[in-house]
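Recall from the previous chapter that SMILES is a line notation for molecules. Here it describes flavin-adenine dinucleotide.
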Amino acid sequence: MSAETHDVIIIGTGPAGLGAAFHLIESNPTLDILIVDKARVCSGGLLNDCKQNYTFPIGFADEYWDREGAEQILPEVERHLQPKIMEKHNLGQYGQRAEQLGVSLLDVKQAHVGSDKSMDLIRRLMSELESLGVKVLLEKEVAGVFTRDGRPGVTFADDREISAVALVVAPGRKGFRFLKEVMEQLGVDYVDNIVDIGIRLETRAEHYSIVQDYYDPKIYFDNKVRTFCTNSGHARVVLEKYQDFSVINGHAFSRESRRNNLVNFALLKTIRLQDPVRSGHEMAVYLGRLANEIGGGKPLMQRVGDFRMGKRSKDETFNQDLYDFEPTCKVTAGDLGLAIPAKIMKHLWTALKKLDSIVPGILHPGTIMYYPEIKMYANKPAFRDEYFQVGDNIYMIGDGAGTSRGITGAWASGIRAARGILQSL
Ligand SMILES: Cc1cc2nc3c(=O)[nH]c(=O)nc-3n(C[C@H](O)[C@H](O)[C@H](O)COP(=O)(O)OP(=O)(O)OC[C@H]3O[C@@H](n4cnc5c(N)ncnc54)[C@H](O)[C@@H]3O)c2cc1C
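With both inputs in hand, we obtain:
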Protein backbone atom coordinates (compact mmCIF):
# COMPACT_ATOMS: atom_id res chain seq x y z
CA MET A 1 0.00 0.00 0.00
CA SER A 2 1.40 3.43 -0.96
CA ALA A 3 1.71 5.81 1.97
CA GLU A 4 1.54 9.05 0.00
CA THR A 5 -1.90 9.98 -1.31
CA HIS A 6 -3.58 13.01 -2.88
CA ASP A 7 -7.05 13.86 -4.11
CA VAL A 8 -5.87 14.18 -7.70
CA ILE A 9 -2.61 13.32 -9.49
CA ILE A 10 -2.01 14.85 -12.91
CA ILE A 11 0.72 13.41 -15.16
CA GLY A 12 2.05 16.14 -17.46
CA THR A 13 2.35 19.90 -17.03
CA GLY A 14 1.46 20.67 -20.64
CA PRO A 15 -1.60 22.76 -21.41
CA ALA A 16 -3.91 19.75 -20.89
CA GLY A 17 -2.54 19.09 -17.39
CA LEU A 18 -2.55 22.79 -16.50
CA GLY A 19 -6.14 23.20 -17.74
CA ALA A 20 -7.23 20.39 -15.40
CA ALA A 21 -5.17 21.67 -12.44
CA PHE A 22 -6.43 25.28 -12.65
CA HIS A 23 -10.06 24.28 -13.06
CA LEU A 24 -9.92 21.84 -10.15
CA ILE A 25 -8.20 24.14 -7.67
CA GLU A 26 -10.27 27.18 -8.62
CA SER A 27 -13.48 25.17 -8.24
CA ASN A 28 -12.44 23.63 -4.93
CA PRO A 29 -9.46 25.31 -3.19
CA THR A 30 -9.32 22.58 -0.53
CA LEU A 31 -8.34 19.89 -3.03
CA ASP A 32 -4.93 18.29 -2.61
CA ILE A 33 -3.52 18.17 -6.15
CA LEU A 34 -0.14 16.90 -7.33
CA ILE A 35 1.06 17.61 -10.88
CA VAL A 36 4.10 15.62 -12.06
CA ASP A 37 6.40 16.07 -15.04
CA LYS A 38 9.54 14.32 -16.17
CA ALA A 39 10.89 17.54 -17.68
CA ARG A 40 13.06 20.08 -15.85
CA VAL A 41 10.92 22.94 -17.09
CA CYS A 42 7.23 22.38 -16.91
CA SER A 43 4.48 23.05 -19.40
CA GLY A 44 5.26 20.78 -22.34
CA GLY A 45 4.25 22.32 -25.64
CA LEU A 46 3.72 25.81 -24.20
CA LEU A 47 7.48 26.11 -24.31
CA ASN A 48 7.42 26.52 -28.10
CA ASP A 49 6.28 29.70 -29.79
CA CYS A 50 2.79 29.30 -28.43
CA LYS A 51 0.39 30.35 -31.14
CA GLN A 52 -3.07 30.19 -29.67
CA ASN A 53 -6.22 29.63 -31.70
CA TYR A 54 -9.52 30.58 -30.12
CA THR A 55 -11.89 29.48 -32.89
CA PHE A 56 -13.38 26.00 -33.26
CA PRO A 57 -12.33 23.58 -34.83
CA ILE A 58 -8.67 24.69 -34.76
CA GLY A 59 -6.83 22.70 -32.11
CA PHE A 60 -9.83 20.52 -31.28
CA ALA A 61 -10.42 16.89 -32.27
CA ASP A 62 -13.81 17.15 -33.92
CA GLU A 63 -14.89 13.63 -33.01
CA TYR A 64 -15.03 14.72 -29.35
CA TRP A 65 -15.96 18.39 -29.66
CA ASP A 66 -18.67 20.48 -31.24
CA ARG A 67 -18.65 24.23 -31.76
CA GLU A 68 -21.00 24.92 -28.87
CA GLY A 69 -18.99 22.87 -26.37
CA ALA A 70 -15.70 24.44 -27.45
CA GLU A 71 -17.04 27.99 -27.45
CA GLN A 72 -18.49 27.52 -23.99
CA ILE A 73 -15.09 26.50 -22.59
CA LEU A 74 -12.68 28.73 -24.59
CA PRO A 75 -13.26 31.91 -22.50
CA GLU A 76 -11.87 30.06 -19.48
CA VAL A 77 -8.76 29.10 -21.49
CA GLU A 78 -8.41 32.73 -22.55
CA ARG A 79 -8.72 33.98 -18.97
CA HIS A 80 -5.60 31.99 -18.02
CA LEU A 81 -3.45 32.42 -21.11
CA GLN A 82 -4.30 36.16 -21.42
CA PRO A 83 -3.69 36.30 -25.19
CA LYS A 84 -3.08 39.49 -27.13
CA ILE A 85 -5.44 38.82 -30.06
CA MET A 86 -3.94 39.84 -33.40
CA GLU A 87 -5.74 41.87 -36.04
CA LYS A 88 -6.43 40.47 -39.53
CA HIS A 89 -6.78 42.38 -42.80
CA ASN A 90 -7.95 41.79 -46.38
CA LEU A 91 -9.52 38.43 -45.62
CA GLY A 92 -12.27 39.15 -48.15
CA GLN A 93 -9.79 39.27 -51.01
CA TYR A 94 -8.02 36.01 -50.10
CA GLY A 95 -11.35 34.38 -49.23
CA GLN A 96 -12.82 35.19 -52.65
CA ARG A 97 -9.84 33.68 -54.47
CA ALA A 98 -10.05 30.60 -52.25
CA GLU A 99 -13.77 30.17 -52.82
CA GLN A 100 -13.30 30.17 -56.60
CA LEU A 101 -10.98 27.18 -56.18
CA GLY A 102 -13.23 25.29 -53.78
CA VAL A 103 -10.87 26.04 -50.90
CA SER A 104 -11.86 27.38 -47.45
CA LEU A 105 -10.07 30.18 -45.63
CA LEU A 106 -11.02 30.10 -41.97
CA ASP A 107 -11.26 33.30 -39.97
CA VAL A 108 -9.58 32.34 -36.69
CA LYS A 109 -9.08 34.43 -33.54
CA GLN A 110 -5.34 34.15 -32.84
CA ALA A 111 -2.55 35.19 -30.53
CA HIS A 112 1.19 34.55 -30.67
CA VAL A 113 3.67 34.64 -27.80
CA GLY A 114 7.01 33.74 -29.47
CA SER A 115 9.64 31.19 -28.41
CA ASP A 116 11.66 33.92 -26.68
CA LYS A 117 8.71 34.91 -24.47
CA SER A 118 6.93 31.64 -23.75
CA MET A 119 9.05 31.01 -20.65
CA ASP A 120 7.62 34.21 -19.08
CA LEU A 121 4.10 32.88 -19.66
CA ILE A 122 5.03 29.51 -18.16
CA ARG A 123 6.60 31.11 -15.08
CA ARG A 124 3.48 33.18 -14.49
CA LEU A 125 1.18 30.17 -14.84
CA MET A 126 3.29 27.97 -12.57
CA SER A 127 3.62 30.60 -9.88
CA GLU A 128 -0.17 31.16 -9.96
CA LEU A 129 -0.76 27.43 -9.71
CA GLU A 130 1.60 27.04 -6.77
CA SER A 131 0.12 30.02 -4.98
CA LEU A 132 -3.27 28.35 -5.29
CA GLY A 133 -1.79 25.37 -3.42
CA VAL A 134 -1.12 22.85 -6.22
CA LYS A 135 2.00 20.77 -5.58
CA VAL A 136 4.40 20.55 -8.52
CA LEU A 137 6.91 17.71 -8.88
CA LEU A 138 9.40 18.17 -11.75
CA GLU A 139 12.12 15.91 -13.16
CA LYS A 140 10.17 12.82 -12.07
CA GLU A 141 9.18 10.41 -14.79
CA VAL A 142 6.11 8.33 -14.09
CA ALA A 143 7.02 4.74 -14.92
CA GLY A 144 3.57 3.20 -14.66
CA VAL A 145 0.03 3.49 -13.42
CA PHE A 146 -1.87 1.10 -11.15
CA THR A 147 -5.27 0.67 -9.56
CA ARG A 148 -5.60 -0.88 -6.13
CA ASP A 149 -8.68 -1.10 -3.91
CA GLY A 150 -10.53 1.10 -6.37
CA ARG A 151 -7.92 3.87 -6.25
CA PRO A 152 -5.56 4.80 -9.08
CA GLY A 153 -1.92 5.63 -8.54
CA VAL A 154 1.46 6.13 -10.17
CA THR A 155 4.82 4.45 -9.78
CA PHE A 156 8.31 5.86 -10.37
CA ALA A 157 11.54 4.19 -11.45
CA ASP A 158 12.69 3.95 -7.79
CA ASP A 159 9.50 1.96 -7.00
CA ARG A 160 8.01 4.88 -5.07
CA GLU A 161 4.21 4.82 -5.32
CA ILE A 162 1.67 7.60 -4.90
CA SER A 163 -2.07 7.02 -5.01
CA ALA A 164 -5.04 9.33 -5.46
CA VAL A 165 -8.80 9.48 -5.67
CA ALA A 166 -8.56 10.52 -9.33
CA LEU A 167 -5.79 10.39 -11.91
CA VAL A 168 -5.37 12.51 -15.04
CA VAL A 169 -2.93 11.23 -17.67
CA ALA A 170 -1.79 13.99 -20.06
CA PRO A 171 1.65 13.03 -21.43
CA GLY A 172 1.36 14.75 -24.84
CA ARG A 173 2.32 13.53 -28.27
CA LYS A 174 5.80 12.47 -27.23
CA GLY A 175 4.25 10.40 -24.45
CA PHE A 176 2.62 8.22 -27.07
CA ARG A 177 4.38 5.00 -26.05
CA PHE A 178 3.92 5.67 -22.34
CA LEU A 179 0.20 6.19 -22.89
CA LYS A 180 -0.07 3.03 -24.96
CA GLU A 181 1.66 1.01 -22.23
CA VAL A 182 -0.64 2.49 -19.59
CA MET A 183 -3.73 1.64 -21.65
CA GLU A 184 -2.52 -1.92 -22.13
CA GLN A 185 -1.73 -2.19 -18.42
CA LEU A 186 -5.21 -0.97 -17.48
CA GLY A 187 -7.03 -2.93 -20.18
CA VAL A 188 -8.32 0.21 -21.93
CA ASP A 189 -9.24 -0.35 -25.59
CA TYR A 190 -7.82 2.14 -28.08
CA VAL A 191 -7.65 2.92 -31.77
CA ASP A 192 -4.79 4.53 -33.60
CA ASN A 193 -6.00 5.09 -37.13
CA ILE A 194 -5.31 8.75 -37.89
CA VAL A 195 -2.06 10.44 -38.78
CA ASP A 196 -1.09 13.75 -40.40
CA ILE A 197 1.75 13.61 -42.92
CA GLY A 198 3.14 16.50 -44.90
CA ILE A 199 5.86 18.96 -45.69
CA ARG A 200 7.00 22.29 -44.25
CA LEU A 201 7.64 25.15 -46.62
CA GLU A 202 10.13 27.92 -46.02
CA THR A 203 10.32 31.02 -48.14
CA ARG A 204 10.93 34.74 -48.10
CA ALA A 205 8.14 36.74 -46.47
CA GLU A 206 7.37 38.53 -49.75
CA HIS A 207 6.59 35.17 -51.37
CA TYR A 208 3.89 34.41 -48.80
CA SER A 209 2.63 37.91 -48.20
CA ILE A 210 -0.64 36.83 -46.58
CA VAL A 211 1.25 36.69 -43.26
CA GLN A 212 1.23 40.49 -43.13
CA ASP A 213 -2.57 40.28 -42.94
CA TYR A 214 -3.17 37.03 -41.08
CA TYR A 215 -0.47 35.59 -38.80
CA ASP A 216 -1.29 31.87 -39.10
CA PRO A 217 -3.72 31.51 -42.04
CA LYS A 218 -5.85 28.39 -41.79
CA ILE A 219 -6.58 27.19 -45.31
CA TYR A 220 -8.45 23.93 -45.97
CA PHE A 221 -8.10 22.14 -49.34
CA ASP A 222 -9.61 19.01 -50.89
CA ASN A 223 -8.29 15.60 -49.90
CA LYS A 224 -7.97 16.59 -46.24
CA VAL A 225 -4.98 18.85 -46.85
CA ARG A 226 -4.57 22.00 -44.74
CA THR A 227 -2.05 24.67 -43.82
CA PHE A 228 -0.78 24.41 -40.25
CA CYS A 229 1.49 26.30 -37.85
CA THR A 230 2.65 29.32 -39.86
CA ASN A 231 5.59 31.28 -38.48
CA SER A 232 6.92 34.63 -39.61
CA GLY A 233 8.91 37.64 -38.41
CA HIS A 234 11.92 35.82 -37.02
CA ALA A 235 10.92 32.31 -38.05
CA ARG A 236 12.94 29.13 -37.96
CA VAL A 237 12.44 25.55 -39.11
CA VAL A 238 13.54 23.08 -36.43
CA LEU A 239 14.07 19.39 -35.86
CA GLU A 240 11.78 17.48 -33.52
CA LYS A 241 13.76 14.46 -32.36
CA TYR A 242 12.30 11.05 -31.70
CA GLN A 243 14.25 7.97 -30.60
CA ASP A 244 16.00 7.15 -33.86
CA PHE A 245 14.81 9.70 -36.38
CA SER A 246 13.83 13.37 -36.65
CA VAL A 247 10.88 15.17 -38.12
CA ILE A 248 10.44 18.80 -39.07
CA ASN A 249 8.64 21.52 -37.16
CA GLY A 250 8.81 25.31 -36.99
CA HIS A 251 8.56 28.23 -34.62
CA ALA A 252 8.99 31.98 -34.46
CA PHE A 253 10.26 34.51 -31.98
CA SER A 254 8.05 37.28 -30.66
CA ARG A 255 7.33 40.42 -32.65
CA GLU A 256 9.93 42.38 -30.69
CA SER A 257 12.80 40.23 -31.88
CA ARG A 258 14.95 40.99 -34.94
CA ARG A 259 13.24 39.81 -38.11
CA ASN A 260 14.84 37.38 -40.55
CA ASN A 261 12.00 38.00 -43.05
CA LEU A 262 11.38 34.33 -43.61
CA VAL A 263 8.13 32.42 -43.32
CA ASN A 264 7.58 28.75 -42.67
CA PHE A 265 4.41 26.69 -42.44
CA ALA A 266 3.30 23.08 -42.75
CA LEU A 267 1.02 21.61 -45.36
CA LEU A 268 -0.45 18.45 -43.87
CA LYS A 269 -2.66 15.69 -45.19
CA THR A 270 -4.79 13.80 -42.69
CA ILE A 271 -4.84 10.08 -43.33
CA ARG A 272 -7.53 7.93 -41.78
CA LEU A 273 -6.52 4.28 -42.08
CA GLN A 274 -9.32 1.82 -42.67
CA ASP A 275 -9.59 -1.96 -42.36
CA PRO A 276 -7.29 -3.71 -41.71
CA VAL A 277 -6.24 -0.89 -39.42
CA ARG A 278 -2.86 -1.37 -37.90
CA SER A 279 -1.41 1.84 -36.58
CA GLY A 280 -1.21 5.39 -37.89
CA HIS A 281 1.67 5.89 -35.51
CA GLU A 282 3.63 2.93 -36.87
CA MET A 283 2.98 4.12 -40.43
CA ALA A 284 4.35 7.52 -39.48
CA VAL A 285 7.40 5.91 -37.88
CA TYR A 286 8.11 3.92 -41.08
CA LEU A 287 7.80 7.02 -43.23
CA GLY A 288 9.89 9.08 -40.83
CA ARG A 289 12.64 6.45 -40.76
CA LEU A 290 12.58 6.11 -44.56
CA ALA A 291 13.07 9.84 -45.05
CA ASN A 292 15.90 9.88 -42.48
CA GLU A 293 17.49 6.85 -44.14
CA ILE A 294 17.48 8.52 -47.55
CA GLY A 295 18.73 11.72 -45.93
CA GLY A 296 21.71 9.96 -44.30
CA GLY A 297 20.28 10.33 -40.81
CA LYS A 298 18.44 13.62 -41.33
CA PRO A 299 15.18 14.78 -42.92
CA LEU A 300 15.17 15.99 -46.53
CA MET A 301 14.83 19.38 -48.18
CA GLN A 302 14.23 20.26 -51.81
CA ARG A 303 13.80 23.57 -53.61
CA VAL A 304 10.55 23.99 -55.52
CA GLY A 305 12.56 24.86 -58.67
CA ASP A 306 14.41 21.53 -58.55
CA PHE A 307 11.25 19.61 -57.73
CA ARG A 308 9.46 21.11 -60.75
CA MET A 309 12.29 20.08 -63.04
CA GLY A 310 12.26 16.55 -61.58
CA LYS A 311 15.79 16.99 -60.23
CA ARG A 312 17.03 16.29 -56.74
CA SER A 313 18.35 19.28 -54.85
CA LYS A 314 22.03 19.31 -53.99
CA ASP A 315 24.07 21.56 -51.74
CA GLU A 316 25.23 23.47 -54.83
CA THR A 317 21.67 24.20 -55.99
CA PHE A 318 21.07 26.10 -52.80
CA ASN A 319 23.64 28.67 -53.86
CA GLN A 320 22.74 29.52 -57.42
CA ASP A 321 20.60 32.16 -59.08
CA LEU A 322 17.13 32.54 -57.47
CA TYR A 323 18.12 30.51 -54.45
CA ASP A 324 18.65 33.50 -52.33
CA PHE A 325 18.31 32.54 -48.68
CA GLU A 326 19.98 30.01 -46.47
CA PRO A 327 17.75 27.24 -45.05
CA THR A 328 17.24 27.84 -41.33
CA CYS A 329 17.36 24.08 -40.73
CA LYS A 330 20.18 22.56 -42.76
CA VAL A 331 19.06 19.02 -43.41
CA THR A 332 19.95 16.88 -46.44
CA ALA A 333 19.35 18.35 -49.90
CA GLY A 334 17.62 15.60 -51.86
CA ASP A 335 14.56 14.32 -53.64
CA LEU A 336 11.25 14.31 -51.79
CA GLY A 337 9.74 12.10 -54.49
CA LEU A 338 11.82 9.18 -53.22
CA ALA A 339 10.42 9.43 -49.73
CA ILE A 340 6.80 10.63 -49.91
CA PRO A 341 4.12 8.13 -50.97
CA ALA A 342 2.76 9.13 -54.40
CA LYS A 343 -0.82 9.79 -53.30
CA ILE A 344 0.28 12.06 -50.46
CA MET A 345 2.68 13.98 -52.72
CA LYS A 346 0.01 14.40 -55.40
CA HIS A 347 -2.52 15.81 -52.95
CA LEU A 348 0.03 18.15 -51.37
CA TRP A 349 1.20 19.44 -54.74
CA THR A 350 -2.40 19.99 -55.96
CA ALA A 351 -3.05 22.01 -52.81
CA LEU A 352 0.17 23.98 -53.29
CA LYS A 353 -0.81 24.98 -56.82
CA LYS A 354 -4.14 26.27 -55.52
CA LEU A 355 -2.36 28.08 -52.70
CA ASP A 356 -0.14 29.77 -55.25
CA SER A 357 -3.27 31.20 -56.90
CA ILE A 358 -4.59 32.46 -53.56
CA VAL A 359 -1.24 33.88 -52.39
CA PRO A 360 0.85 34.26 -55.56
CA GLY A 361 4.52 33.60 -54.89
CA ILE A 362 4.62 30.54 -52.69
CA LEU A 363 5.77 28.38 -55.61
CA HIS A 364 8.79 30.59 -56.24
CA PRO A 365 11.69 28.32 -57.33
CA GLY A 366 13.61 29.27 -54.20
CA THR A 367 10.94 28.05 -51.77
CA ILE A 368 12.18 25.07 -49.75
CA MET A 369 10.04 22.00 -49.05
CA TYR A 370 11.17 20.06 -45.97
CA TYR A 371 10.00 16.51 -45.22
CA PRO A 372 8.81 14.79 -43.07
CA GLU A 373 6.47 16.90 -40.97
CA ILE A 374 4.37 14.32 -39.17
CA LYS A 375 1.86 14.63 -36.35
CA MET A 376 1.83 11.37 -34.45
CA TYR A 377 -0.88 12.01 -31.92
CA ALA A 378 -3.66 9.92 -30.83
CA ASN A 379 -3.83 6.51 -29.47
CA LYS A 380 -7.45 7.29 -28.94
CA PRO A 381 -8.76 5.49 -25.87
CA ALA A 382 -12.32 4.22 -25.68
CA PHE A 383 -13.75 6.96 -23.46
CA ARG A 384 -16.50 6.05 -21.04
CA ASP A 385 -18.05 9.48 -20.91
CA GLU A 386 -17.82 13.06 -22.15
CA TYR A 387 -15.20 13.84 -19.48
CA PHE A 388 -12.57 11.57 -21.08
CA GLN A 389 -12.79 8.97 -18.33
CA VAL A 390 -11.24 5.65 -19.38
CA GLY A 391 -11.43 3.65 -16.14
CA ASP A 392 -12.73 4.26 -12.62
CA ASN A 393 -11.54 7.81 -11.86
CA ILE A 394 -8.84 7.67 -14.55
CA TYR A 395 -8.91 10.32 -17.27
CA MET A 396 -6.77 10.61 -20.42
CA ILE A 397 -6.50 13.94 -22.21
CA GLY A 398 -4.48 16.15 -24.55
CA ASP A 399 -2.69 15.53 -27.83
CA GLY A 400 -1.43 12.10 -26.71
CA ALA A 401 -4.93 10.79 -26.12
CA GLY A 402 -6.27 12.51 -29.25
CA THR A 403 -8.68 14.91 -27.52
CA SER A 404 -6.80 17.95 -28.90
CA ARG A 405 -4.43 19.12 -31.61
CA GLY A 406 -3.08 22.31 -30.13
CA ILE A 407 -2.60 24.38 -27.00
CA THR A 408 -6.12 25.76 -26.56
CA GLY A 409 -7.82 22.43 -27.33
CA ALA A 410 -5.48 20.67 -24.89
CA TRP A 411 -6.24 23.19 -22.13
CA ALA A 412 -9.99 22.86 -22.86
CA SER A 413 -9.68 19.05 -22.59
CA GLY A 414 -8.17 19.51 -19.14
CA ILE A 415 -11.15 21.61 -18.09
CA ARG A 416 -13.56 18.94 -19.32
CA ALA A 417 -11.76 16.18 -17.40
CA ALA A 418 -11.72 18.39 -14.29
CA ARG A 419 -15.49 18.85 -14.54
CA GLY A 420 -15.89 15.07 -14.55
CA ILE A 421 -13.61 14.69 -11.52
CA LEU A 422 -15.49 17.36 -9.56
CA GLN A 423 -18.74 15.47 -10.11
CA SER A 424 -17.30 12.22 -8.84
CA LEU A 425 -15.25 13.39 -5.84
C1 LIG B 1 7.93 22.59 -32.06
C2 LIG B 1 6.45 22.64 -31.74
C3 LIG B 1 5.74 23.81 -31.91
C4 LIG B 1 4.38 23.88 -31.61
N1 LIG B 1 3.73 25.06 -31.74
C5 LIG B 1 2.42 25.14 -31.41
C6 LIG B 1 1.75 26.37 -31.50
O1 LIG B 1 2.34 27.38 -31.84
N2 LIG B 1 0.42 26.41 -31.19
C7 LIG B 1 -0.28 25.29 -30.79
O2 LIG B 1 -1.50 25.39 -30.52
N3 LIG B 1 0.35 24.11 -30.68
C8 LIG B 1 1.67 24.01 -30.97
N4 LIG B 1 2.31 22.83 -30.85
C9 LIG B 1 1.53 21.69 -30.35
C10 LIG B 1 1.30 21.86 -28.85
O3 LIG B 1 2.56 21.95 -28.24
C11 LIG B 1 0.47 20.71 -28.32
O4 LIG B 1 -0.76 20.68 -29.00
C12 LIG B 1 0.19 20.83 -26.83
O5 LIG B 1 1.34 21.14 -26.11
C13 LIG B 1 -0.42 19.54 -26.31
O6 LIG B 1 -0.59 19.63 -24.94
P1 LIG B 1 -0.54 18.37 -23.98
O7 LIG B 1 -0.73 18.90 -22.61
O8 LIG B 1 -1.44 17.33 -24.50
O9 LIG B 1 0.94 17.77 -24.13
P2 LIG B 1 2.38 18.42 -23.90
O10 LIG B 1 2.33 19.88 -24.01
O11 LIG B 1 3.30 17.69 -24.79
O12 LIG B 1 2.73 18.08 -22.39
C14 LIG B 1 2.95 16.76 -21.96
C15 LIG B 1 3.84 16.80 -20.75
O13 LIG B 1 3.84 15.50 -20.16
C16 LIG B 1 5.17 15.21 -19.72
N5 LIG B 1 5.30 13.74 -19.66
C17 LIG B 1 5.19 12.86 -20.69
N6 LIG B 1 5.35 11.60 -20.25
C18 LIG B 1 5.58 11.70 -18.92
C19 LIG B 1 5.83 10.72 -17.89
N7 LIG B 1 5.89 9.41 -18.16
N8 LIG B 1 6.03 11.17 -16.63
C20 LIG B 1 5.98 12.50 -16.35
N9 LIG B 1 5.75 13.46 -17.27
C21 LIG B 1 5.53 13.06 -18.54
C22 LIG B 1 6.05 15.86 -20.77
O14 LIG B 1 7.35 16.12 -20.26
C23 LIG B 1 5.30 17.15 -21.07
O15 LIG B 1 5.70 18.24 -20.29
C24 LIG B 1 3.69 22.72 -31.13
C25 LIG B 1 4.40 21.54 -30.92
C26 LIG B 1 5.77 21.49 -31.23
C27 LIG B 1 6.50 20.19 -30.98
